[in-house]
Amino acid sequence: MSKEFGEIIRQARKSKGYSQRKLAELLSVDFTYLSKLENNRADYAPKEDVIRALARHLNLDEEELIYLAGRIPHQEEDFLRENYKSMPTLFRRMRENPEFARKIFQEATQGEKSRRR
């Protein structure tokens, strides 16, 4: 089972030795807002720039954190707008055919590794 956004940032903050107040100061947000994020009690997902700053300060993967927070990265919005009608079909095929889903994820992961080299 994957961890939730708040749990990941709380654990990373603690392992870095930051207090909520110190990390909030680095992010230019109120520490009470950071507390809400860590407890998954915020009324809305943080803005992408806040998530990216969290990732940088806590040495976390920015894209993974964006998705865990329920945000879509800006660079993906156009793609999703262009292909929104096909998405339900893709998701249904992936649910119905786990081997197809594994193949899609495996190819996506290999593509990411190649781009990072």
From TrEMBL:
PROSITE patterns: HTH_CROC1. SUPFAM superfamilies: lambda repressor-like DNA-binding domains. Residues 9-65 form the HTH cro/C1-type domain. It comes from the Bacteria. Pfam families: HTH_3. This is Helix-turn-helix domain-containing protein.
